[in-house]
Amino acid sequence: NLRPLAIRHFALGLGIKVLYSVNLYVLIGLLAGYMIDLRGYQWYQGALVISPGLAAMVASLAVGTWLGTDGNRKLRMFLGLGGMAAATLALSNVDVYTAKAWQAAVLCCWGAGAGLVCGPGLLTMFEGLSNEETLASAGVFNIARSLPAFLASGLLAVLVTQHADENFDWIRLKIRDNRPVVEQSMRQSHAHMIARGSSHDLAKKQTHAMLGQWVHANARAYALQDALRILAIVPCAGMLLVLAVRIPSVEAARLRGRAALKSQHVI
Questions:
Q1: For residue 149, how many other CB atoms are within 10 A of its CB?
Q2: Model pLDDT for residues 115-150, shown as the tens digit of each residue
Q3: How far is CA 222 from CA 33, 106, 218, 227, in A?
């Protein structure tokens, strides 16, 4: 049932929720792939990097519930989405050497922003809806929570794969242009392998394999940076929707509450 989309505050709240969910789910998916597949983290190391973001999200949600009012609802959503966008943009600087502590700190800022948006976004969506309107909106709300994030995740996965291939070719050409530096690195790596007990032929194969892994890792890291920069735009679109939200006055909300109680009494 798409009729609830004709209700202004529901449509705006749903749009904010969709953009919020896309950034939330896709970012975690991209970072999980980066930490486990690219960097080789153990599962508990990845969990330790993400856990500060989760803790900050819960704390921010609790503070917003405690101190939040209709008067600062738009400000909370705007600042929260802005924090998510800024943190996502900062995470686009990750490479094959980025420290875990830095990732955790940025995710903590991102989680704080996400916690500010969650409650006000839902309130904006469902505020003032009757029971019938709420039930009618359930279908479109449930679809909007997952389908756009799934679609965005698939598109960015394709983009990462394509850009990784392009970056791999570019890095190989760059290595060819900087052959003296590459040859010196190969000699040092070859000597390192021999010093660890490898034969000459085996050390040569190990050196080429190590250089190939390094090139592939950097190519994928650069592709991930591109995907995260695109993902940082998503909360910015949500910030524009927040500006169009109209928060009802306290008196109007009180009258709606009285009308709702009266209708329940009649029923």
A1: 20
A2: 999 999 999 998 888 888 888 888 888 888 889 999
A3: 14, 19, 6, 9
